[in-house]
Amino acid sequence: KVRDQTRPSTPGRLKKRIAVMTSGGDAPGMNAAVRAVVRMSIAQGCEAYAIYEGYEGLVQGGKFIKRMHWEDVRGWLSEGGTLIGTARCKAFTERTGRLRGAKHLVLAGIDALVVCGGDGSLTGADIFRSEWPGLLAELTKLGEISEDQCSSFKTLNIVGLVGSIDNDMSSTDATIGAYSSLTRICQAVDFIDATAYSHSRAFVVEVMGRHCGWLALMAGLSTGADFVFLPEKPPQDKWEKEMCRIIKTVDPNPSTHPPIHRAAGKRKTIVIVAEGAIDRELKPITATYVRDILVDELRLDTRITTLGHVQRGGTACAFDRILATLQGEEAVKAVLESTPDIPSPMIAINENKITRKPLMDAVRLTKAVAECIKNKDFAGAMDLRDPEFEEYHRAYMATTKPDELSEKAPEDKRMRIAIIHVGAPAGGMNAATRAAATFCLNRGHRPFAIHNGFPGLVRHDSVRELNWLTVEGWAIRGGSEIGTNRSLPSEDMGMVAWYFQRYKFDGLLIIGGFEAYHALTELHSARDSYPAFRIPMICLPATISNNVPGTEFSIGSDTCLNALIEYCDAIKQSASASRRRVFVVECQGGRSGYVATMAGLSVGALAVYTPEEGINLNMLKNDIDHLRESFANDKGMNRAGKLILRNEKASKTYTTEIIAEIIREEASGRFESRTAIPGHVQQGGTPSPMDRVRAVRMAVKCIQFLELNKKPPKEVFEDPSTSAVIGVRGASIVFTSVEDLRGVETDWDSRRPRKAFWLDYRGLVNTLGGRAGTPTG
Ligand code: ATP
What we know:
By secondary structure, the chain is α/β, with parallel strands linked by helices. It has 25 helices and 25 strands. The strands form five sheets. Strands 12, 13, 14, 15, 16, 17, 22 and 23 form an eight-stranded mixed sheet that branches. The longest helix has 23 residues, at 119-141. Adenosine-5'-triphosphate binds at residues 23-25, 55, 88-89, 92-93, 117-121, 123-124, 127, 164, 166.
């Protein structure tokens, strides 16, 4: 641990000073970022500062620049907006304003500035850094700072964190706040959905996004909206006709040529319009105009809902809290590792990997999108967005609009694809099934659902063909619409093969958790004896435990985390409101500590107990000492409830109840403990938007995998890569064959992968929770 960052050039001052500020529009998760920067800085032996009110505070100086202590950010994870304030500051856009800002930083002895904001804020930060030597020279000339001060603050470290609900920054897949905002939008659309269905109405929903359609597109994907309007992808000319056609399509034969929407019996219509939506001539497409068309052309009872500022509101979702925390940690590391010749970094995320990107490149690319749109170069605008955006757009089109794909699969490549759920229900299973089915229909395949898992198949011949209307509404539903079951095919492999042959399946999609993966390994091995399984087979991991080998992320785990943190936030509040109390919360997750660890990061747990690490007396003793100290430091405003998260299988001996009792005994009346067991609440009700959108993207990729591997049975048999698990690994989405996974990568006894990326996060949970050994002052 780096305890003291000595600066020999600054006699009398031993510690590096790192300041953090939030700027531009507020975004949920900004507080988590500030908390992480403050606590990481202190833990690394530096002094932490906050600059209140964004650049305005920098220009004003004085009381706006405040030293931050460990306790100052206690409880901040569950707060919305930004507690250190934000502002749009005109003065900072001019050099004189920045000159005053530089003076205040030097006088406060601040070496590094972490700015959390949108592209405007980060542009300002980069300009500030590039001007820094000139600003200091001028301040010295004016006598505002001394020669000594000038030479000891020769360089200013700037690190950018992207905090913005629009998700409009290039080079990163997600910005802090975007998924929370999407959650709010989806909640609203889900509510509207019910009333639209009841009255058979149409709704036009306007969402934020002046230059970026991410929120609109993702909301469309997660709610199964009929049409979306985005700034960077204007619709074709005469789109009015096309929109009406899609909403009203008539076709007598649903299985061969998918009709959707009204004519097929759909009772509701949802159209999502980004506030910056335009047509190809750059004419704004407004919600009012869309409504008028639906009323005039289709005679639909149509209402407009403009969501406005509710999209910024509320507490951050689990993903944003984790993202902000990991990025805050990375920002402090970047400060400590920076040298004058390294350009200012922006902390990004690509798939599941936290990365550093040159800040100015990211800002330049972001601005270039707006420029392309202005010049009607829409292909260029889409190219500049991350590939993931384009992929999501294609997935939306392919699962929503008939005929959107110019090419159906050639006749001889068309397939009969079986979809089955195996294991416990997880959020997003239905969204994945719907997306797989609609994508199949669009490509000319025939999707079949096997209801109630393998027992359903062998006992009840439970196979039903899916069409557009059967899966209508599944995008937002929790649980498993086709029924799921834990049983493995080995219970009656012969019958499973017989049914596969009878239905002439030539591709299989298994959606589920560890059992689904296990089932796939069994079917793969059974290819030896049963030719019916010599077809491409793919497993789409869906489980709250996130314990499937071959992926770092399973759909359903985000829904679970959100349900769990909502629960934890509530009991934490109760813990702080009542007497001095610690809650020991029992988390699900089987023998995987993923959920407990990530929830620990999201709620700021004091300690997390996982099966991977186990529990021993020494740990308990240290944690109880830490609790004593922590309660002793709780004063006035900084009082906050305390949580310990224990995975259900972390230890046979130290049960949740026993840990609570040991704490009670040891506290000797100075504080008390309680247990809290959320149980099946963790499976979540409505799936989170992140699970829904990932489900759609993954499901489409799974069907593409099956298409690609449609080959004669002999070739499939000889090629083990035709049985695979789709997964996120680091910055990529990959297919890994079960043969590669079932050996070294799988811990069969503990039913989890042998290596898990999140194990590295345990140290961070401990550091930010101030667990024994972390310097906190
Ligand atoms: P959002 O994504 O919410 O709009 P943003 O960071 O892009 O966030 P802006 O209003 O563009 O929001 O910028 C916030 C502040 O950053 C501005 O008020 C200004 O102080 C500073 N800023 C923006 N652009 C520049 C610039 N080119 N030079 C200096 N400072 C700037």
